[in-house]
Amino acid sequence: MPPAAMIGGSASSSEVTLTEEKPIEKYQSREIGSSETTRPNDMDLEAQAAQLKPKLFASTRYAILTLYRRLFTLVFLANVAVFVAVMATEQKLLALINATAANLLACGLARQPLVVNAIFIVVCSMPRSAPMPLRKLAAKVYHYGGVHSGCGVASLVWYLGFVGVMSHQYWATPSLAMIRLSAAPVTLAYIILVLLVAIIVVAHPTFRMKWHDYFELTHRFSGWLIVALFLALLMVFAHEASQSLHQPIGKFLINLPAFWFLAFTVCSIVQPWLFLRKVAVKAEPLSTHATRLHFEHTTTSFGKGIQLAKHPLRDWHGFATFPDTPAGTTDGPASFSCLVSKAGDWTSDTINSPPTHLWKRGVLINGFAYAMRVFSRVVVVTTGSGIGPCLSFLGDENRPALRVLWQTRAPLKTYGEGVMEMVHRMDCDPVIMDTNQCGRVDMVPVILQQIRQFDAEAVCVISNPVLTGRIVYELEARGIPAFGPIFDS
């Protein structure tokens, strides 16, 4: 197996020495200072990085006007424009309820596993021979969450209009009201409004980051309750509206688009739960910080993730998956793994008390890494347990050529020889920085060096949210295609 490049010793971030490991001790670096291990181009990396000046207005373009926010703004403003037009018409009530239901459907479909997989497959089917600007745009497909949140907030705008017009109809004199309504639909409407506001408030990134478990439970159960109450509201409204318009309730519902939008919404919610299963899992302890979970209920492929839970109605956690055997081989049973590192109560309990069974729902979902297939040569940058999602690159023989840059503490001791061997399968000559030896190194200069040496088209960054955002911004500001998961990817 080709040796890994290790960074160790007392080299500073401005003068990093790369060393190669001993053939016998496969994942140990040689002593720093050996003339045969020093590479001239590795010197003064910070000075080299400083030569690439940030673009003009880089902070506005890459930190504020992200694709996620642009998608959100486009969807929201388009809805606002139509909302203003609708409020100028006479058929406000029916138009408002139809638009609300349409946005709720779009909001749900943007998170539906089958739809997400289809989006990734279609967008990332772009050939690697396509122009770079098109491939850069396609690789940001994981920003699709902007459509989800845009439609979610837009549905609140439409629903506020619906509640306002309904309330006016309820309190209007009989001669002025187009549809006579009782207190039942109005009461249901205000209950739904409270829930809709609550679900949007807890989805704010600040709340979501600090109290993720509460966000998930509130988002899921309030979403289900909103759909159920909306269905009840639709039935009651249809009953009273059909009487006012002198037509059968069945005919009224069939001709009402909101009814069909809501029916499709229910189907999109139910479908993943039809695949709810309790599956066997074999835990392979790696250290007190990490464990590897093996599954045999299905197979995985490039860039796919799995949703796992210890109780089906509590918090769910997503993990990137990777095959247990090299892509294109048939050695051993069809199985796959995911890497769990200590990052909270759920992961800590999984490491300390390895499970024998876990719940999974839906199908394996294409994730952020899948978008990297549009490039030919990629530098993969990761820290610590971020190597787990990176291993999902192993699920495809046609994956891009990879250069792995991994900064972590005691990689062999923490993650074991099996993970190290898979890292070498991704890249026969990875750059592994052991922070126990060299401390934390500023990764941007090292990344820029690897981009030049490897002739990379793009950089894939998988780390904690703060570091991922900083590295992606610093690279994009210098005109380098860089990609990293966002909070809503």
Q: Would you kindly provide a written description of the structure presented here, covering whatever features stand out?
A:
The chain is α/β, with parallel strands linked by helices and 489 residues long. It folds into three domains: 209 residues, no CATH class; 90 residues, Elongation Factor Tu (Ef-tu), domain 3, CATH 2.40.30; 115 residues, 3-Layer(aba) Sandwich (Rossmann fold). It is 48% helix and 14% strand. The chain contains 18 helices and 16 strands. The strands form three sheets. Strands 2-1-14-13-12-15-16 form a seven-stranded mixed β-sheet, with helices on both faces. α18 links the parallel β15 and β16. α4 packs antiparallel against α7. It starts with a strand and ends in a 6-residue tail after the last strand. About 8% of the residues have low confidence.
Q: What is the helix content?
A: 40-55%
The number of domains = 3
Low-confidence stretches: 6-25, 27-43
The best one-word shape is elongated
**Count of DSSP-assigned helices:** 18
Q: Whole-number average pLDDT?
A: 85
Please report the total strand number as a whole number: 16
Q: How many angstroms separate the termini? A: 35 Å
Strand content bin:
5-15%
How many strands, which pairing sense, and closed or not: the largest β-sheet? 7 strands, mixed
Q: Nearest-angstrom radius of gyration?
A: 26 Å
Which secondary-structure class do the elements indicate? alpha/beta
Strand sequence of the main sheet, in spatial order?
Answer: 2-1-14-13-12-15-16
